[in-house]
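User: What would this chain look like folded?
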Amino acid sequence: MTDRIDLKAQADRYPVVTVGALVVSPKRRVLLVHTHKWRGRWGVPGGKIEYGESVRCALLREFREETGLRLTEIRRGPVQEAIESPEFFKKRHFILLNFIATCESEQVELNDEAQQFAWADPEEALTLDLNTPTRALIEFYLRHGFSTEVLT
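Assistant: Here's the prediction, encoded as C-alpha cells.
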C-alpha cells in the first residue's frame, strides 16, 4: 500500500498529457460539454492518454467513452499548456494535444464526466463561458479550419 501511495505522489509531480478535439457536425456546429472539472465552464471532450496508447487511439477512445461519437477527418490543432489553471477543479499541469475533427451525426450519449452538452455555431460558442484552452481552440479553428495536417 505504501508503494502505491508513493507512486501516486510521484506521478503528481509530472505534467499530465491529454487529448481533446473540437468536433464539427454535418451542420457545421461544434460540440461543447459542461463539466464540473472546469468549474462549470464549457469545454471540449477529451482526457488522458493511457500508457502504451497512441495519441489517435486515445482520442478515439475518449470520444467513444464520453460522447458515443465516432470521429472522422481528424486534423492537428494547437498544443497548449495549462499549469495549475484556476479554472480546473484541482492543481494540475496539463499538456493539451488538441485536434479538429468531424462526426457523422449530432447524436450524443454523455457518460458521467459531463453534465450537459450543446452544439453551437463556432462564433456563437465564443460568447459562452468557455475554459481558456477551449476558447483558444475555437479561435484556432476559425482561423485555420481543416487546413492543418491529418492525424494518422
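The chain has one domain: 15-144. If you want, I can go into more detail on any region.
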